[in-house]
Structure formats: C-alpha cells, structure tokens
Design a protein that fits this description.
mainly beta; Immunoglobulin-like
Length: 115
Amino acid sequence: MEPSLSLQGSNVPPRNGVGLRVQQVKAIPLRGQGALVSFALTANAQTEVAIFSLTGRLIRLLDRQTYRQAGSHQLRWDGTDAQGHPVPKGAYLVRVRAHDEQGQIAQSGTILWLR
C-alpha cells in the first residue's frame, strides 16, 4: 500500500505535559544535486521521511522506521524517484513522521523547490 500524504499532525495526547514533536523541518535545494532535509525531534522516536508530488503521489521514501534520538537530524535526497530516475524541477512536499514507544505520533512537513 502506497503511503498517503497528510501534513496534519495526528498526535496522541502527551503524558505529563511532555510529548513527541517534529519541529524545524527544512528542505534546502542543492543546485542540481537534490536537497538536504533537516528536522528536530523532541523525544526519541522511529522516523519516516518521504518526498511527495504536489498531487500527493509518493516520489521517494528516504527513511523508514529508523530509530533516532531526540535532537537535530539531516538526510540528503539525491533528487531521484524510487526507481532512481531524476525528478523534474518544480515543487515537492517533504513529510517527516515520527512515533515513539508510548504510541505518540507526530508529523510535520515543508515545501521544497527544486531548480
């Protein structure tokens, strides 16, 4: 089943006021070499980072079920789709989704312009 695109968070209420959040999602184009995707987690979690077209079609899954500690993280996207073909210049959506051991789910996203 292909992942669907949704940038609205679906957070389980945090316990003791401390919760999982995906913050500071940025995608910086790298002049013909894809993009650098950065984000921060407020708690340890498994992450999934995906690139979508503006119509919601999955272009590439960059990261799937990687356990990451709280803090800042970076991934490089080489500007290709799942089959390794270069994608056309234009706008893409970057979604970062995370879930922790307590069942909390958080996600955030940004728009990336490849030129």
